[in-house]
Write a structure and sequence with these properties.
The protein is of the alpha+beta class. It has two helices and four strands; from the N terminus they run E-E-H-E-E-H. A hairpin with a 2-residue loop joins strand 1 and strand 2.
């Protein structure tokens, strides 16, 4: 099982009300780049939530929907039951280890 795309982000950092508008699906390898403040760390935080099977403590009222191949989309409501195994190396990982 792998992440196919991000369908929706609400109240998650700079993503106040983002919906997927014709964005390409993720590939095997993906590179996120952009200016400071453009949302790269916020996206890695979302992936960290999926890894930890928990909602974001930084954005407790956030909503998200992440499509996965061969499964039910992962949302803030069902992230604890997600069977997707991913690993995220970001500042949160460094702080915890």
């Amino acid at each position: 099982m792998s992440i196919k795309n991000i369908q929706q982000l609400k109240q998650l950092g700079i993503f106040k009300n983002h919906t997927n508008a014709n964005a390409k699906d993720f590939g095997r390898y993906n590179l996120f780049y952009g200016w400071n403040g453009s949302g790269k760390s916020t996206l890695s935080g979302l992936f960290r939530c999926i890894e930890n099977k928990a909602t974001s403590s930084k954005f407790p009222s956030s909503e998200f929907s992440v499509s996965v191949d061969g499964g039910t989309p992962i949302t803030q409501a069902n992230v604890a039951n997600s069977e997707l195994n991913i690993y995220t190396f970001n500042h949160d990982f460094i702080d915890e280890n």
